[in-house]
Design brief:
The chain is α+β, with helices and mostly antiparallel strands. Strand 1 and strand 2 form a beta hairpin. It is built from two helices and seven strands, in the order E-E-E-H-E-H-E-E-E.
Length: about 130
């Protein structure tokens, strides 16, 4: 998070029950994503159960090589393997919303500030 000048503690007690996907290249960590299962998400006034992909990050040296696409597809696959019927939620940087739309995600709310970076919630509805 140094690149985004977002140096705050991210303590949410979710790491122990989450799945962590890591991409290594020559003994260097170049990609990471966290997947959380069976979380409650509120859209308008309706609560639904979702799987969540978060903390999606890629080292600058790995960008433009297809690593992000591969990692994101792996995260989606992990969500589907856990529950093929639950929607998948992400909190996307608002400037990357179009990228996530290519995977079928749709925005579900308004842009909000998260640590000084504009984000927007997005959801991938899974066929029941």
């Amino acid at each position: 998070m140094l690149e985004q000048n977002s140096l705050y503690a991210d303590i949410d007690d979710q790491d122990q029950t989450s799945q962590h996907l890591l991409v290594w290249q020559s003994e260097q960590l170049i990609g990471y994503a966290r997947v959380m299962f069976n979380k409650t998400y509120c859209i308008d006034t309706t609560q639904i159960e979702v799987n969540v992909i978060g903390r999606f990050v890629l080292a600058p040296c790995a960008r433009g090589q297809g690593v992000a696409k591969h990692l994101f597809k792996q995260a989606i696959g992990l969500c589907l393997a856990n529950s093929s019927k639950k929607p998948i939620k992400i909190s996307a940087q608002s400037n990357l919303a179009a990228y996530y739309r290519h995977f079928g995600f749709e925005t579900t709310g308004e842009v909000y500030d998260d640590g000084g970076v504009e984000h927007i919630d997005m959801l991938l509805k899974v066929a029941s």
